[in-house]
Design goal:
Layout (H helix, E strand, L loop, with lengths): L2 H10 L5 H13 L3 E7 L5 E5 L13 E3 L4 H8 L3 E3 L5 E9 L2 E10 L5 H21 L5 H6 L6 H9 L5 E3 L3 E8 L7 E7 L3 E9 L3 H20 L4 H15 L5 E9 L5 E6 L5 E4 L2 E4 L19 E2 L7 E5 L13 H7 L5 H15 L8 E8 L38
Helix pairs in contact: 2-4, 6-7, 7-8
């Protein structure tokens, strides 16, 4: 089936039946005996199998498949397909990824071992599936259902809706990923990013308090920042509008935050710190805290202006922006600087999740405050484009997990 034919079939199908379109194509062209899609959950530590629309029961919690030590884990980390041949139908698992955002996995079984051409077609089909999922997820709750391996509180539901639709993104000049672990009583953390024609902007915010009130404060701050950004306001005006919105409507609450804007033409970086913990930068193997001047949080007492400061960012740097949940309570038993250094070879996707997981483990799975991380790798302005034929830049992908059991995928030479 051609790309045009795939799109036509997908358009004719119901939004929850994207996989059916792909499954029929793989069955006709490759003789696949079984095809399924596994979506990554909010934590990034597990996947949930989604079948055809008729097999999804949204009245029950999604069944989680833990990633650690599995073929799924290695495929997501390396962004290369894995093959298992144990004498029966051959199992292939391929990453379903768009611009570095690892949406999930395509799993199929073939009657015989695939050659390089079959592997190429599977990879291209998995990439096409990523676009089908993205195009259809705004029309149905099925994909959101699959990402929830446990029920969300009202505050957590509001909080997740404030996050960007894709938690990771790759461009020629950078790669960025965020991760958020809500506390038992949600604390109002958010992160956001947006790519313009010649800039990328990032923000991390932390609303005062817990539960629904914190989520409402976060909504005011994020909404004001996005509104100002989309209207073309500069960084200082964005901060000013967030301050005004929280002060006028936040019932005496406040929100700390960091705003970052990088010009993609020359790498010039602007930065605002509104009462927020300082970021960490890794350069040449050394992790250092960046200590800019600090202005008042958004919504705190009287109106005030925000200072736009420059931030030194060089090709090869990794910048980590975080919230105070990464630093409080038992989190101080985690040496973040050391962990950032030890995870430098991981893609920001895995690095952010590893940092969050360390804080969760240090608190025995029960956080007193939200823990949030944004991890940015700055490649520099000399990279004209990224090499990402199947949705991810393979040169920046992570290595397989040390406990993984994946069999290397048979990619043709062009993909190695």
């Amino acid at each position: 089936m051609t790309l045009a034919g795939t799109l036509e079939a997908a358009e004719a199908a119901a939004p929850v039946e994207s996989l059916d379109v792909v499954a029929r194509m793989l069955q006709e062209r490759l003789g696949a005996v079984s095809v399924s899609f596994l979506i990554t959950d909010f934590t990034g530590s597990s996947v949930v199998r989604l079948g055809a629309a008729g097999s999804v029961d949204t009245d029950e919690p999604a069944r989680r498949i833990t990633l650690r030590g599995t073929l799924y884990d290695d495929v997501l980390r390396t962004q290369r397909p894995g093959v298992e041949d144990q004498g029966g139908p051959v199992r292939i698992v391929a990453p379903v990824t768009n611009r570095g955002d690892a949406i999930g996995l395509l799993e199929l079984f073939l009657p015989a071992a695939p050659d390089a051409e079959v592997m190429r077609e599977v990879g291209e089909t998995a990439h096409a599936l990523a676009y089908l999922v993205i195009a259809n997820r705004s029309f149905t709750d099925v994909y959101q259902w699959g990402r929830r391996t446990k029920p969300l509180s009202l505050a957590a539901e509001i909080q997740h809706q404030l996050l960007p639709a894709s938690l990771a993104c790759e461009a020629a000049q950078f790669a960025v990923a965020g991760a958020l672990e809500p506390a038992d009583h949600v604390g109002g953390d958010t992160f956001d990013y947006a790519i313009g024609r010649d800039t990328v902007q990032l923000s991390v915010t932390d609303a005062m308090g817990h539960d629904v009130q914190a989520a409402l404060l976060a909504t005011l701050a994020v909404g004001a920042l996005r509104r100002a950004r989309r209207a073309g306001a500069d960084l200082a005006e964005q901060a000013g509008q967030a301050d005004q919105a929280v002060r006028e409507h936040g019932r005496k609450g406040y929100v700390t935050g960091q705003l970052l804007r990088i010009r993609l033409i020359d790498g010039k970086t602007e930065f605002i710190n509104a009462g927020h913990p300082w970021p960490l930068r890794m350069r040449d193997g050394q992790v250092r805290e960046i200590t800019p001047k600090i202005d008042m949080p958004f919504g705190f007492e009287a109106p005030h202006s925000y200072r736009v400061q420059s931030l030194d960012l060089r090709p090869g740097d990794r910048l980590v922006m975080l919230t105070d949940g990464m630093l409080e309570h038992n989190a101080d038993s985690v040496d973040l600087s050391d962990l950032i250094a030890r995870t430098r070879d991981l893609h920001p996707r895995e690095a952010a999740r590893t940092l969050i997981a360390a804080i969760v483990d240090a608190n025995d799975g029960h956080l007193q405050d939200d823990a949030t991380v944004m991890c940015l790798d700055w490649h520099g302005t000399s990279h004209p484009q990224r090499d990402a034929a199947t949705g991810a830049d393979l040169t920046d992908a992570s290595q397989p997990s040390p406990t993984g059991r994946a069999t290397p995928g048979r990619w043709p030479a062009a993909f190695n």
